[in-house]
Design goal:
Strand content: 25-35%
Order of helices and strands: HEEHEEEHHE
Number of helices: 4
Shape: globular
Largest sheet: 6 strands, mixed
Radius of gyration: 13 Å
Number of strands: 6
Distance between the termini: 24 Å
Helix content: 25-40%
Structural class: alpha+beta
Length: 121
């Protein structure tokens, strides 16, 4: 399978953010890591208030991207739902509860990446 274009990857990120916003995710952040990592182009980080909401956020992102032809490659942490990672290869969506988001602080760990707004995608 050919690599996706930059525009397609940005569109995936936009769809993810729309799905998160639709289900009332909090504190959504986008980090462009394309220049510093081969893991993905973007990390999208969001918070949910409880296990049910976090799982609903995950389901919404997976469904929206899946319908657009971008199936999830791997999901980690869904059952516990304190930190769920959705790997779509070119974007990785992290959905946390508030406590684990503060503890793991991905924004600090990946501070070499460029924090961008959804409008910059």
């Amino acid at each position: 399978m050919a690599d996706l274009s930059t525009e397609k990857i940005k569109e995936m990120a936009k769809m993810s953010i729309a799905a998160l916003e639709d289900k009332k995710a909090e504190d959504i952040r986008i980090i462009d890591i394309s220049g510093i990592s081969v893991l993905a182009d973007y990390f999208i980080i969001a918070s949910g208030n409880n296990r049910n909401q976090i799982q609903t956020l995950c389901d919404a992102v997976e469904e929206k991207l899946g319908k657009a032809g971008h199936p999830v490659k791997q999901i980690e942490g869904y059952d516990n739902a304190n930190w769920v990672l959705l790997d779509f290869k070119d974007i990785i969506v992290h959905i946390f509860d508030k406590e684990n988001r503060l503890f793991y602080d991905l924004e600090r760990i990946w501070c070499d990446g460029k924090t961008i707004s959804p409008g910059d995608l």
